[in-house]
Amino acid sequence: MFFKESLNLLKRKFIERKKSKKMAETFSAHQYAQKRNVLNWSDQNSSYIMRDIIIEIYL
User: Fold this and answer.
1) What is the pTM (predicted TM-score) of this model?
2) Cβ atoms of residues 13 and 5 within 8 Å
3) C-alpha–C-alpha distance, residues 25 and 9, integer Å
4) CB of 24 closer than 8 Å to CB of 31
5) DSSP secondary structure of 10-39
6) What band does 3 get if pLDDT is binned at 50, 70 and 90?
7) How many CB atoms lie under 10 A from the CB of residue 33?
């Protein structure tokens, strides 16, 4: 019983560590994009959508 509980605790800790590492990576990528004045994906995507709408209006 004790062994199973400790194994589950280890699994949970490992998953949490993985999540926090992933979050740190995305955060640093976002910071890098801000420093470089690069459009992040959502801005770029919305501008593509706007472009498509404008093209549809004129066609």
Assistant:
1) 0.35
2) no
3) 24
4) no
5) HHHHHHHHHHHHHHHHHHHHHHHHHHTTPP
6) confident
7) 14
Locus of tokens 């949970």: 12
Residue given tokens 């400790």 in the structure block = 6
Cα angle 11, 16, 22; round to 5: 125
* Close Cβ partners of 39 (under 8 Å, ≥ 6 residues apart): 33, 47
| Token output for 52 | 């498509």
Residue type, 15: I
17, 24 Cβ separation under 8 angstroms: no
Delimit the domains of the chain by residue range: 2-58
pLDDT tens digits for range 17-46: 777 666 666 666 666 666 655 554 555 555
Compute the distance between CA of residue 14 and CA of residue 16 in angstroms, rounded to an integer. 5
